[in-house]
Amino acid sequence: MSSVRILYFAWLRERAGRSEEEVTLPAEVGTVGALMAWLGARDVELAEAFGMRRVVRAAVNQNFASAETPIVGGDEVAFFPPVTGG
Amino acid sequence: MQDLAGVVRVQAENFSPGAELDALLARAPGAGGVGSFMGVVRSDLARPIVALTLEHYPAMTRAAIEAIVAEAEGRFLLRGCTVIHRFGRLLPGDRIVFVAAAAAHRRAALDATSFLIDWLKTRAPFWKQEEFADGTARWVEAAEQDVVDADRWKDSRA
Q1: A and B: number of Cβ contacts within 8 A
Q2: What strand order describes the sheet that includes A2-8?
Q3: What is d(CA B83, CA B100) in angstroms, rounded to the nearest whole number?
Q4: Nearest by CB to A62, which of B60, B117, B122?
Q5: Beta bridge mates, B34
Q6: Phi, psi of B121 (to 5 degrees)
Q7: Residue A36 and residue A12 in contact, taking contact as beta carbons nearer than 8 Å
Q8: What is the dihedral of CA A13, B44, B39, B88, to 10 degrees?
Q9: Short-list B72, B128, B62, CA closest to B100
Q10: Residue of chain A with shortest Cα separation from B40
């Protein structure tokens, strides 16, 4: 069991109803993609938001990540829509 | 990584483009030209907005912009550059972003300016929300063209 910090931004934050949370992951959740599936299974709002997977982006420890990026205990994982700054 | 000559600021406060250009030139020895771009809050004439709020990922924003600056400095042999990006609630006409690049010659200065703003659009963790007069709000969607613009630089290492 390991604990990770999850952050949500922009409309994903609104859908989730929270900007961050600390979750304890089962051992089999070892990638960003697996984390999304696991979070979605616990929360229908998040599942719907992640359902638009094509447009959901992630970062692990403040670096852009993909579904295959590994996660370990202590990581900070952020989920957000495509960026629109500039 | 080498020390960046570039100045990166992420702030709520306004800035003065003239003062920033003077400051950049003062720390860019050997520069023969400076290119710059400033983005401002646009209000669609057909559906005016009352405000634009920029959310960002504070722990990541600065490092993401510094990585873009480091890439620009390497590609264009810059003598210096400045990137300022604001966050928070802004009004139509307010300044959002400022990039300026100093180089020995105009082509590098202008190309670096384009490069900086194109990569900022697709690699800096900011999100815009528009606020309308009727009280509704809408998250701005990423434009396909922004990705096309950023991809222009993929195969053009100067």
Answers
A1: 73
A2: A20-25, A2-8, A76-80, A57-60, A63-65
A3: 7
A4: B60
A5: B102
A6: -65, -30
A7: no
A8: -30
A9: B72
A10: A86
Minimum CA–CA partner of B95 in chain A: A86
pLDDT in tens, B120-151: 999 999 999 999 999 999 999 988 888 888 88
Minimal Cβ distance to B54: which of A76, A80, A85: A85
- Contact in structure between B119 and B150 (CB atoms under 8 Å): yes
Residues of B in contact with A9 (CB under 8 A): 55, 57, 125, 127
Residues B43, B34: Cα–Cα separation, whole Å: 29
- ipTM for the predicted complex: 0.93
B-chain CB neighbours of A80 within 8 Å are 57, 125, 127
Selection from B8, B59, B83, B118 nearest residue A63 by Cα? B59
Could you tell me which residues come within 8 angstroms of residue A81 by beta carbon, excluding any fewer than 6 positions away? A9, A10, A11, A12, A55, A56, A57, B127, B139, B141, B142
* Amino acid symbol at B78: L
Are the CB atoms for B128 and B85 separated by under 8 Å? no
Closest CA to B5 of B138, B137, B112: B112
pLDDT category, B2, cuts 50, 70, 90? very low
Low-confidence ranges of chain A (pLDDT < 50): none
By Cβ distance, the residue of B59, B63, B124 closest to A85 is B124
Which residues lie closer than 8 Å to B129 by C-beta, 6 or more apart?
A10, B52, B53, B54, B55, B137, B138, B139, B140
Residue B55 is encoded by which pair of tokens?
């959310």
Task: Specify the pTM.
Answer: 0.92
